[in-house]
Amino acid sequence: MGDENDKYEAAQEQMKECDHRRNEDYCTNGGNSHNVAADDDEKCVTKKLKLSFITEAEIRQEFAHHQRGIARLNNGSFGSCPASIIAAQKVWQHKFLQQPDDFYVNHLQKGILCSRSVIKSLINADHVDEVSLVDNATTAAAIVLQHVGWAFAEGRFQKGDAVVMLHCAFQAVKKSIEAYVTRAGGSVIVVQLPFPVHSVEEIVAEFRKGLAKGKALGGRIRLAIIDHITSMPCVVIPVKELVTICREEGVERVFVDAAHAIGNVHIDVKEIGADFYVSNLHKWFFCPPAVAFLYCRKAPISSDLHHPVVSHEYGNGLAIESAWIGTRDYSSQLVVPEVLDFINRFDGGIEGVRKRNHDAVVQMGLMLAKAWGTRLGSPPEMCPSMAMIGLPPSLGLASDDDALYLRNHLRDTFSVEVPIHYQAQKDRQIGAKSNEEYATGYVRISHQVYNIQDDYIRLRDAINQLVHDGVTCNMLRKE
């Protein structure tokens, strides 16, 4: 309890400093973010003289709350939150519980505006009004696709007009398309991406084919949904190039689903050029769950985007609507400045963390591939802080169910937490001499700052043990 109390007290001091920054900047606005000039938002971004960088011992301490004895190789699904940020979140929660009226009237909107300002600077948006904070990428997808559904329902889009998406889009996005687009009469064009993938050009070529298919159907392509980093299988997508192609081919709007992006790859929304861009802050940016940002480029349609939860702020702009959706815990949205302070403890800040994780995951991925006689699922430059590595074919992974059985077995027997991807083989090469052509299963490893080499060695040895013992996925089904 002593360590937790120390962290909480330290977080209280940090919060006092952050409150001072917020109050110093916005006290004249009475806590009303509607009146804050866009030029003032830069004041929220923390700029401190760095005296020393975080040590490896301090990193271990920040993540000491992780369950011991687990090789945690799945940061990509749920992220991770340092102890100092958990303590800062607790201060915000206590602030609300101690005096809710004062919290909502004098602190909430100023705090959320400060968090939005931090994100605005990190992603190079033009205006803080272009940045809204929402629960997660799923909520952001609902906001964008709800708007598309209304356009069909109101006759602005015609039956047969289409939405384009990648075949490996997140399942919740596919369901949102079903709920808002196809139900309203729109059609869906699915672009099949190759995997394993060997080059950016392969992805660009398949995307062009998908757009050509859509144009051949006769309707207009109203929206393209492009992942910046696909989840399963994991690949960095050349979003800037694909957005440019969309503009050339007359696609009306582009939504980049970048759930994994911030803290994982460099983001410049003006350079990317999409109309909408979303990224979770709790996956690779160290925020507590659940918080994401949705960037909406200023355009005539911006005023007609609305949060699915309608509150008394309806009609005041998406950013303001999203900052008030009733009584709930907003603390994860309020600690963004403190998270940036944590990230800036690392040499190179956010770009330094990104490079550290990318280099490490590629190194560990190549080590595993060598040990199993397989290869990475994409070139190193197309790996973010995650990598796909082919599993030995002798494991006999032949379905999504097999992938789940193997994942559960690794967790329960070897204390290894790692996602498994099943990849059907369409055209096996007769006489192939390596496992690459026969790999039907891939592990998706993540690397975050808390990971150590022993985590990956445990995974390597677990798979090697299964191969040595002649274990197959079919056998695991019968356990």
Protein architecture, described:
Residues 114-301 form the Aminotransferase class V domain. With 479 residues, this protein is an alpha/beta fold. The protein has a domain at 349-477: Alpha-Beta Complex (Aspartate Aminotransferase, domain 1). The chain has 17 helices and twelve strands. The strands form three sheets. Strands 2-8-7-6-5-3-4 form a seven-stranded mixed sheet, sandwiched between helices.
Summarize the structure.
The chain has 479 residues and is α/β, with parallel strands linked by helices. Helix content is 44%, strand content 11%.
List key phrases describing it.
single chain, 44% helix, three-stranded antiparallel sheet, alpha/beta, Aspartate Aminotransferase, domain 1, seven-stranded mixed sheet, 479 residues, 17 helices
Total strand count, please? Answer: 12
Output the CATH class name of the domain at 349-477: Alpha Beta
- Overall geometry: globular
Give the proportion of residues in helices.
Answer: 40-55%
Strand adjacency order, main sheet: 2-8-7-6-5-3-4
CATH topology name of the domain at 349-477, in short, is Aspartate Aminotransferase, domain 1
Mean pLDDT: 88
Largest sheet: 7 strands, mixed
SS strand fraction: 5-15%
Number of helices: 17
Topology:
Layout: H1 2-26, H2 56-62, E1 71-72, H3 75-78, H4 83-98, H5 100-123, E2 131-134, H6 137-153, E3 162-166, H7 171-180, E4 187-191, H8 200-216, E5 221-227, H9 239-248, E6 253-257, H10 269-272, E7 276-280, E8 292-296, H11 318-322, H12 331-334, H13 336-343, H14 349-372, E9 386-390, H15 400-414, E10 416-417, E11 420-422, E12 441-446, H16 453-468, H17 473-477
Parallel strand pairs: 1-10, 3-4, 3-5, 5-6, 6-7
Antiparallel strand pairs: 2-8, 7-8, 9-12, 11-12
Helix pairs in contact: 1-4, 4-5, 6-7, 8-9, 14-16
